[in-house]
Amino acid sequence: MKKVDVHTDGACRGNPGPGGFGVVLTSGKHRLELSQGFARTTNNRMELLAAIVALEALTQPCSVRLWSDSRYLVDAMTKGWLRGWKRKGWVTSNRQPVKNRDLWERLDAAAEAHEVEWKWLKGHAGHRENERCDELAVTASQAPGLPPDDGFEGN
């Protein structure tokens, strides 16, 4: 399997507010940067969407190390939260509906074809690729004429 390092970040001005995500994929000498902004969304949605878009960009099954500064994302994937939510019919341990279910389902499907190692790193701590993802996400969130985040219930 091809080995791919993925760095992701989400940004939101206000929460909710205009937001965006940034992604850097590297494999050997190859590098791909992706970003997108939305008119009204949340930071958590952008963190999730960054990981989704990165995994969906891969055209074949890969061995992926995915780095994120989002505990929400990394903990859900490494501590079994996602499996539990699915098993319980998409409710949390307090019997509340899981927020961002549309994106969790999409992430689950996107990750299925790959061997993904979910890695947390501290944000805004000088890590080159994380800083680049933040730049991409912030810039995307500031673009004119941003589309709606159709899955965001606060639209």
Automatic annotation (TrEMBL):
It holds the Pfam family RNase_H. One of its GO terms (cellular component) is cytoplasm. GO terms for biological process: DNA replication, removal of RNA primer. Gene3D superfamilies: Ribonuclease H-like superfamily/Ribonuclease H. Mg(2+) 1 binds at residues 9, 47, 69. Its main location: cytoplasm. Mg(2+) 2 binds at residues 9, 134. Transmembrane segments: none annotated. InterPro entries: RNase_H, RNaseH-like_sf, RNaseH_domain, RNaseH_sf, RNaseHI. One of its GO terms (molecular function) is magnesium ion binding. It catalyses: Endonucleolytic cleavage to 5'-phosphomonoester. Signal peptide: none annotated. It is found in: Cytoplasm. Belongs to the RNase H family. NCBIfam families: PRK00203.1 (NF001236). This is Ribonuclease H. It comes from Haloferula rosea. The gene is rnhA.
